[in-house]
Amino acid sequence: HSAKMASVGVSVASLWTEVNRCGQSGDFTRALKALSKILHDNKDDVTALHCKVVCLVQNGSFKEALNVMNTHSKVLGSEVVFEKAYCEYRLNRVESSLKTIENAPEQTDKLKELYGQVLYRLERYSECRSVYTDLIRNSQDEYEEERKTNLAAVVASVSQWENTPVEVLGLPESTYELCYNVACALIGQGKLTEAFNKLQQAEELCRVSLAEDSDVTEEDIEAELAVIHSQMAYILQLQGRADEALQLYNQVIKLKPSDVGLLAVTANNIITINKDQNVFDSKKKVKLTNAEGVEYKLVKKQLQAIEFNKALLAMYTNQADQCRKMSCSLQAQNPGHPLPVLIQVAQLCREKQHGRAIELLQQFSDKHPESASGIKLTMAQLYLAQGHVTKACDVLRSIEEFKHKAGMVSALVTMYSHEEDIDSAIDVFKQAIEHYQSEQPGSAAHLALVREAANFKLKYGRKKEAISDLEQLWKQNTKDVHTLAQLISAYSLVDTDKAKSLSKHLPSADTMALKIDVDELENSHGATYVRKKAAKVTGENPPKEPGQGEIKKKRKKKKGKLPKNYDPKATPDPERWLPMRERSYYRGKKKGKKKDQIGKGTQGATGGASSDLDASKTATSPPTSPRPGSVSGSTAASGSNVVPPRQQKPAASGATRKKAPQKKKKGGKGGW
Q: The domain containing residue 77 runs over which residues?
C-alpha cells in the first residue's frame, strides 16, 4: 500500500513538472490536460484550479474559465478576483466586471490597470484619467509607454465626446499609437490642419516600426494604417473635400480590415457623403454597420449617429413606413434628442402633411424647451412655406438662444416689413438694443443695431422715433456729419429750437464746399452735357455785322417712298389723311354671316361657349383666395433639407493588443 502511494506521489509531481514546462513554453492546451489529471484525484486543489483558470484565459476560453471560478467559488475565494473581473470584461459584461473590482479585498496594481480599462469602456473618462495618471506616477516597468498611450486615448475621448477643453499633458509622440491619439484630441478641439499633419506623422512612424519586422508584408502595413487613413478621410470630409474623403474611405473598405468598429464608422461616413444620392451604394454600406460586435467597439454617440442615419436612409429610399417606425423607436430611446423628431417631420413634409409636422414639432418644443432651438427654427420654416409669416415670426421670437442675434433681428425685421407690420419690426429692434445695452454697451454689434434701427425708422417716416437712436450714435461720434444732419431733420418736426441749436455743430458752407475747377471738369474725358461757351473775339474771326446772314448748310432731303399703286396721272384722295370712319364716303362694315371662330380662343371650344362653361364666372362659385407671397430670406421645408444626415466621430487608439479597449479604430462624426 505504501509503495502504491509513493507511485501516485511521483505521478502528481511529474504532472506539475509538465504544467510548469508547458506554462513557460506557452502550450496551455497541453497544460490543461495535465491539470485535469491532477484535479481528477483532488478536485479542490486550489493551485490546480487557479492554474486551470489562467490556462483557459490564455486560450481565450473566458466563459469556461468563469464557469470554473463560479463552480469552485468557495474554494478559490478572492484568489481569482482579477481573473474573474478580466473574463467578465472580455465577455463584454463590463458592469459586472466593475462590481467585481470594486468588491475586491485589495486593489492590486493589475486590478487598477483593468479598472482603468473598464472605466474607459463605460465612458467615465474623468475617473479613468485619474486612474492612469496615478498608475504612470507610481509604476516603474516596461509598460509605461502603453499606459501613456491609454491616457492619451482618454484625453482624446474627452476632447471629442464631452466637448470640454483638455489641458496639454506633454505626452510623448514616440509611437504611432500615441501620435494617432494626439491627432484625435486635436480633431476634438477643431484644429483640423494640425491634426492631419499629426496623422501623417503617425503614418510615417507606423511604416518605420513595421518595416523593421521582416515577416510583415505590405498588405499587413496597409491593414495597420487603415485606421489612420480613415481618420484622415474624416478630416477631409470636415474640410468639405468630400471627393478626396470618399476615395480614401473606399480604399479602407476594400482592405476588409478585421476591426468591425473601423468598418462600421467608415461605412457610416460614406453614407453621410452619399446623402440622398447613390442610395444603392449606401444600402450596401449600411450592412457593415450591423456586423456582430460593433456595439462593443464604438461609444454610445457613434452608435446613436449610425441609427439616426439608418432612419434617414430609409427616408431617402422612400421606405416611409420603415422610416416612421425607426424614428419613433429612436425617439422612445432618446426622448430629449431633437433628431428623431426632425426625421419624422422630414418624412411628413415629403408626404405634404405640413400641419401634422408642425404638431409634432410643437409637442417636442413643449416637453423639451431646453433643446428646442433647432425644432423651433424648423417650425418657423414650415410656417413660412405655408405663407403664415406672422406665426413664423412669433416662433422665432420665442427662441431665447437666438432672439437677439443680428441674423435673427435681420430676418424678423425683413418678415415684418413684408407684412407691413412696422411697429413689430421696431419692437424687435428695441428689444435687441435693450439686450445689448445691458450686456455689451457701446460694442460694435450694439452700435450697428442702433444704426440699422435709426435707418429703418427714417425709411418708414418715423423720424420722431428715430431721434433717440440718432442722438446715441452722434454722441458716440460727434464728427459724424451725416448722423447729425439726420438728427436735425428729425428734430425739425418736433422741436425746432433743438434743431437750430444742433445746426450750430454743422460745419460751415465754406469748409463743406469742394474746391473744384468747373472748366477742368467739363473738359475732362467722358464729360457730357457741356455748357456752350461764348465765342472768343480774335483777329481772324471778326464779329459779323448785322444783316450779314449766316450761310446755313442745307441738308439733303430723302425722297419719300410712294405707294405701290401710285398713279402720277390720277388726283390723290383729299380725305386720305382722315381716319376711314370719318371720311364722307364711309358706309360702315358690311353685315355678313359670322365666321366660325374655330382656331381662336381656348383649344377645342368656341369663344361664346367658353364663358358659359367657366365655373369661376357663376354666382355659386366661391372667390379664389390670393396665394401667399414668398418672404425674403425664407425657404420652404422639404423632406430632404429639414434634417441633414450626420456623420460619426472617431476616437482614439490604445496600445495594449489583447485586453485594452482603448485601441479604438475609428473614423468620423456627424454634424454634431
A: 12-139
